[in-house]
Amino acid sequence: MRQDKPGVLLVNLGTPDAPTTPAVKRYLKQFLSDKRVVDTPRWLWWPILNGVILPIRSPRVSKLYASVWMKEGSPLMVFSQRQRHALAAKLDIPVELGMSYGNPSLKSAVDSLMAQGVTRLIVLPLYPQFSCSTVAAVWDGLSSVFAGYRSMPDVHFIRDYAEHPAYIAALKASVERSFAQHGKPDLLVMSYHGIPQRFANEGDDYPQRCRDTTEALTRALGLSDSEVMMTFQSRFGREPWLTPYTDETMRGLPAKGVRHIQIMSPGFSSDCLETLEEISEQNREFFMHAGGEKFEYIPALNDDAEHIDMMLALVNAHR
């Protein structure tokens, strides 16, 4: 009889191996070559990517990574590894971490789990809100890995957890800690990573999943709609992305009488370049320069105990 042995694969986006131009260039090339991320026809995109974007962006982005790099490494990698260790400590089954881009690769994580005799694979992409550009890319990556196997395990794929009670409870606790420390702001801003508006028009339900999280957290906190705002950050390229844009919002809020804001990025399970540099530094500067008086960034859930308990609940539901 086939023995049932579950195992867990945590997946996040990935990060360069070092805050250097060559490492960032390797990472960006893999990331921006994925058709889930950029679906421009290859014949048009490839010369632009290799001839313009990578040579120009890699040196600049490497400096940004250097500004947030931790002693142990890239913040996203450090926190993702802490999450893996903390979850593994609560489980009696194998837990591995793989990245869609960069190291450790999805293949290395799957190879390790298969070598440990896993027959039922529980895949938890660490993206609270589904998007074709993130969660579906994990599905594609796994399909590519298993294309090289003669056998494969039962796969339990967790699509997302935008409204999961344990996720909302963990976010609520983090906001309440910030309010207790800094006082209640005029406005709580929830900034999510953007996607092209075209993706949503073509069926990606990511915007709705972001609204689901925002509405659930607003209710849990007992806030009114006027005390909360949802925005989208990190747009790339020239086509329209989801609005309102976070950076433009930051520049405009003080003129509307908003002097104190607290901002969080509920779509990021780990702090990374997009939260520590783009939100906490760049957007702080936009807000304060426009006349704002107080700006606090509420960290991602990272390896908070409530966050690990949520992961445990999701995994146990599939055991």
Task: Explain how this protein is built.
It is found in: Cytoplasm. It holds the Pfam family Ferrochelatase. Pathway: Porphyrin-containing compound metabolism; protoheme biosynthesis; protoheme from protoporphyrin-IX: step 1/1. The protein is built from 11 helices and 8 strands. With 319 residues, the protein is an alpha/beta fold. Helix content is 48%, strand content 16%. The relative contact order is 0.14. It is globular. Helix 9 (246-252) runs parallel beside helix 10 (273-289). The strands form 2 sheets. A 4-stranded parallel sheet has the order 2-1-3-4. Strand 7, helix 10 and strand 8 (294-298) form a beta-alpha-beta unit. The protein folds into 2 domains: 6-161 and 306-316, Rossmann fold; 165-298, Rossmann fold (3-Layer(aba) Sandwich), CATH 3.40.50.1400. It has helices spanning 21-32, 42-68, 75-90, 106-115, 135-146, 165-182, 197-201, 206-221, 246-252, 273-289, 305-316; strands spanning 6-15, 95-102, 120-125, 154-157, 187-193, 228-233, 260-264, 294-298.
